Amino acid sequence: MADWRALLDSEFDLYEPINLAQSLVRIASVSDTKGESEIARYISNYLIDNGIRVEWQEVEEGRANLLAEVKGALGDGPSLLLNGHLDTVPLGSGWHYPPLGGQIIDNHLFGRGACDMKGAIAAMMYTLRLISLFSHSLYGSVKLVLVVDEEKDNLGMKHWIERYQNEGDMIDFAVVGEPTDLNISLGHRGVAGFRVKAKGRASHAGIAEQGANAIYLAAQIVRGIEEKSEELKKRADRDLGLPSLNVGRIQGGVSANVIPDFCQLEIDVRTLPDVPLEELEQEIRNISEKAVTERGERYSIGMEQSIPHLPPVKIPRDMKEIDILARSISDVPGEMPLFAPFPASCEASFLFSAGIPTVIFGPGRIEQAHGADEYVSVTQVVAASRIYSLLTLRFLGGE
To answer: Which of 3, 35, 227, 307 is most buried by its number of CB atoms within 10 A?
Structure first.
């Protein structure tokens, strides 16, 4: 059995993934802008220059996923997928460092997308280059799939999944490089949204008793949802976290001297395999209808789903691929294989739904994503490069 750690160390250049991450951050790739193509072109040129096969998969006019693959020369074998997204959220305001500067200060690389998820993409790019050096000793293949539109409607991933299912290609395991602080996340909670419309009766505030204040009804529903969310904490999943209900937005009323006849609540819902969407939807409905019953016939509610459900996903801890990943983490100085829930949702759900066991693992902390002064640890970008590479070498090398 090859000593993959020693072989990797003989070729590894810690500056290359850092330089790649800086270059990626300096390309504005906000979702649904020409920057998606510009960053894809940069990545393509790097891979092609290193002898790696690249394909552009058009999603819609002017937008394309980037696909790359390194095949083992020893023939058929397992297939590993490394996945990330090309797009970022808008640059925003309030920065103390240039959002496209790619500056490194105190071991932090600053810039929009540094954490979500250009640090991981740089690590994956460098991984493919390293794997190509050892392809003569490997079976199967490693594929890199970088998609557009993750920050909006997931059009890129949906397009790739359709092709994957139609072609009958088989991928044995996938890694999504979202920022997990280099912890192993075995999946994520599901997410959906509901809209509750509290309805009352308008009147002049001077004769408030003739009206029915919809904001008061909404406030009672909010209290009920808060209480239910506290109860749900008892049903936490150690690998995914807590199921939850959260009122994130309230709209109602026209003037202080008018009794409002309408108030609308926007509710975020986080589901688990054991706490399904249907259960939480019914809880919201029960809370809302109870509030109407207690307040009387002048009140009513309406309810609709406002955000489609992205289902929860979870893979077992005892998969051999997780063991290989854990050993690869252990082989990087200063790193330990720890499990932690991924608090957000991501496109692992689409891969899992297509039958691909998927882990979420990448450099950076989700708390640093999307805000001003977004950054990723340079040390973690380098470590991710080593870990992705060791995982791939061991997976394709017969372990």
So the answer is: 35
19 and 165 inside one domain: yes
Structural domain ending residue among the three candidates 287, 309, 331: 309
Portion of the chain with pLDDT greater than 90, in percent: 95
Contact 399, 1 (CB under 8 A): yes
Using CA atoms, how far residue 162 sits from 55, 63, 110, 157, 353, in Å, is: 16, 16, 35, 9, 12
Digit-coded pLDDT (tens) for 246-283:
999 999 999 999 999 999 999 999 999 999 999 999 99
Average model confidence (pLDDT) across the chain: 96
**pLDDT, tens digit, for every residue of 147-190?**
999 999 999 999 999 999 998 789 999 999 999 999 999 999 99
* Whether 317 and 381 share a structural domain: yes
Residue 300 structural domain:
190-309
Biggest CA pair distance of the chain: 85
Q: How many folded domains does the chain comprise?
A: 2
- The reply to whether 227 and 96 lie within a common domain is no
Residues 55, 40 contacting (CB under 8 angstroms): no
CATH code, domain carrying 203: 3.30.70.360
What is the Cα–Cα distance from 130 to 8, expressed in whole angstroms? 8
| 22 and 169 co-located in one domain | yes
CA angle 106, 375, 86 (to 5 degrees): 140
Distance CA 201, CA 148 (A): 47
Task: Look at residues 289, 309, 329 and tell me which one is the last residue of a structural domain.
Answer: 309
Please give the C-alpha separations between residue 366 and each of 29, 158, 345, 378, in angstroms, as whole numbers: 19, 23, 11, 15
How many Å apart are CA 85 and CA 59, to the nearest integer? 13
- By C-alpha distance, which of 365, 369, 267, 269 is closest to 311? 269
The domain that contains 370 carries what CATH number? Answer: 3.40.630.10
pTM recorded for the entire structure: 0.92
Element (H, E) at 176: strand 173-176
Strands 63-71 and 53-60: antiparallel
Tell me, yes or no, whether 301 and 271 share the same domain.
Answer: yes
